[in-house]
Design goal:
With about 280 residues, this protein is an alpha/beta fold. It has a single domain, classed as Alpha-Beta Complex (2-enoyl-CoA Hydratase, Chain A, domain 1), CATH 3.90.226. Strands 1, 2, 3, 4, 5, 6, 7 and 8 form an eight-stranded mixed β-sheet that branches. Helix 2 links the parallel strand 2 and strand 3. The chain is elongated and about 75 Å long. The termini are far apart.
Length: about 280
């Protein structure tokens, strides 16, 4: 016989603590389409708003599995989490899965506490730019490159032109500025928990064990075990997922419905896959 108590949602039971859980999985890039979604403020913000809207929840748990990506989108997500935590007066518990590196770790810093698996990859506090030079190839093919600009620096680091030392120096200056923003964010978030180690901000990365020793992580543990230990065996984890559209799709955004748009989306998705694959492979994943 089914009891009436079993029909009552967990959030309405006085002796049950419900913790909203947001899963952030993937590379951090602006844009996206119906074929592939990235982590960015547009895709993540609706999930965060719903998670923090639970008035009875004492905390919000966020699971992160990301090799990084856009520093701008990473910081926007970080800031939105912290803003909501202050507005709703809730603790933020971050749980690292396979990897929270580079921009992924920047987002992790939004947590009041960071938990990681012993084998998680943590850190990579640095900035990287990568590309290719095609000057030799274009010469072999007998192709003439024609570029017309208004402004002498508009073709900075053109991959089809020989690399210039002054262009590389300019790029390095930009990277150093972004790196400083990253370092200040980590120091402001982790504070005195950080150990004084010369490797900390070099772009190096560690396991969850090494991350804890350096103060990048607070404790080793997984989401379910940690929440049960903190809120009791009756704690309920409510996974926050993207709301479905009229046709049952979870992916937000505009669908053109046109063949041309669909083919363009497939091409863009393919490029995103290659870029994402390169990000994951840096950590052996």
């Amino acid at each position: 016989m089914i009891s009436l108590g079993s029909l009552i949602p967990a959030r309405f039971k006085k002796d049950v603590t419900v913790i909203p859980v947001v899963r952030l999985n993937g590379s951090i890039m602006s844009g996206g389409n119906q074929f592939r979604q990235n982590l960015n403020i547009a895709t993540v913000a609706p999930l965060l708003e719903r998670a923090f809207a639970d008035k009875k929840a004492p905390a919000v748990a966020i699971s992160i599995n990301s090799p990084g990506g856009s520093p701008v989108q990473s910081r926007l997500i970080y800031k939105r989490i912290r803003d909501l935590a202050r507005e709703k007066d809730k603790k933020v518990l971050i749980f690292v899965e396979d990897v929270a590196a580079s921009g992924g770790y920047m987002i992790a810093c939004a947590g009041d506490e960071i938990f990681a698996d012993p084998s998680s990859i943590i850190g990579s506090i640095g900035v990287i730019s990568a590309g290719f030079g095609f000057t030799g190839l274009i010469d072999k093919l007998g192709v003439e490159r024609r570029v017309y600009t208004a402004g002498q620096n508009k073709s900075l680091l053109d991959p089809f032109k020989p690399e210039k030392a002054e262009d590389v120096a300019r790029l390095k200056d930009l990277q150093l500025e972004i790196h400083r923003v990253f370092i200040d964010l980590v120091k402001g978030s982790r504070g005195s928990r950080l150990k004084d180690d010369p490797e900390l901000f070099t772009g190096q990365f560690w396991t969850g064990i090494g991350g804890r020793e350096l103060g990048l992580v607070d404790e080793l543990g997984d989401l379910r075990s940690t929440l049960r230990a903190r809120y009791g065996d009756k704690v309920k984890m409510r996974l926050i997922t993207a709301q479905r559209g009229f046709f049952g799709r979870r992916v937000p955004g505009v669908n053109t419905g046109l063949l041309g748009g669909a083919l363009a989306g497939i091409g863009e998705a393919g490029l995103n896959v290659l870029e994402e694959r390169a990000l994951w492979s840096r950590y052996g994943l």
